[in-house]
Amino acid sequence: LPCEDFIEILAGKDPVPGGGGASALAGAIGTALGNMVGSLTVGKKKYADVEDDILALNEGAKAIEARLLDLVERDAEVFAPLAAAYKNTDDKEAMERCLLDATTVPLEIMRECCKAIELLEAYSQKGSKMALSDAGAGAAILSGALKAASLNVFINTASMTDREKAETFNQETNDMLKEYCA
Question: Vertex 26, ends 98 and 55: CA angle to 5°?
Fold first, then answer.
C-alpha cells in the first residue's frame, strides 16, 4: 500500500495492522536508511577500499528489509486467530497456540531489527561520513521498532499458561532490548 493508505488503515478501528506490523515497517525504514548510506558510499574513490564490505552490507540490508516487510503481513495473519481465540476462551489449547504464534512474530521482528542495528553500526564505521546522521537516524528508528515489538511480546506472554516458555521469550526480549537499545 502507499504510505498514506497504510497510515489511514493503521489509524482505523480494525485491529490489524497494529503495533507489530507498524514495528516491522519502522524496522524496514530504519534498515533502508542504512542501505542509503551504502548507496551513497559505493562508487566514491575515497571509500574504494571498503566498497566490497559496503556491497555486502547492502545485500544484508536488502534481505532484512524484505524480511521485515514480510513480517508486516505475517503479524496481521497471526493476530486474527488470536482475536478469535479471545472470543472463545473455553478452548485453552487453541488460545495457547495462538498466543505462541502471536509472540513468535514480534520476536522475529526484534531479531531482524537487531541484525539491522549491527549493519548500521558497520555502515557508520565504513560508510560515507556525509551520511553518518542517516545511519544514526536508522539506528534510532530501529531502536524504537525494537521497543515497540517488545510490547507485543510482553502482552502475549502475560497471557500464556506455559510460564516456562513465556519467561524464555521474556528473557530473550529483555536481552535484545538491553544490548541493542544501548
Answer: 115
